[in-house]
UniProtKB/TrEMBL annotation:
It comes from Ploceus nigricollis. It holds the Pfam family MARVEL. The gene is Mall. PANTHER family: MAL-LIKE PROTEIN, MARVEL-CONTAINING POTENTIAL LIPID RAFT-ASSOCIATED PROTEIN. This is MALL protein. The chain crosses the membrane at residues 27-51, 57-80, 92-112, 132-152. It comes from the Eukaryota. GO terms for cellular component: membrane. Residues 21-153 form the MARVEL domain. It is a multi-pass membrane protein.
Amino acid sequence: MASVGPSAASTQPALPSGPAVFKTIPYAFILPEILCGTWVWILVAATSVSLPLLQGWVMYVSLTSCLISLLLLLSYLLGFHRNSENWKVLDSLYHGTTAILYMSAAVLQANATINSEFGVNAPLNYQLNSAASFFAFLTTFLYILHAFSIYYQ
């Protein structure tokens, strides 16, 4: 009698550890998420924050997301997940929630960009806010890609 093949449990892809994290989709998105998110808060911090309520939320979301994503990246690099399926659920929930929060921050940053067009130090602040808006939307897209890639994996 011929063997039917591997069991359903063994067909699940293993979670990457070490340098394999940078070669495996969706985990390879973590480093670009951190870098783009870092650019968001650096660019917002470089402006004369004229709308502290709007840009305060942008700073909070970007900085918190960067730190948590960095911890998640380190946990994958060091193998803390021990190939548990719960890590996939945690990763998907985190990236889905962060994508929603980042979308709200990106929209608020775009509003701050529009409001900074004719303010004090208008050309410089407008350019910095425009770049921050671009990176905020790019980071949102990366978090969405990551969340859906885990779901469809």
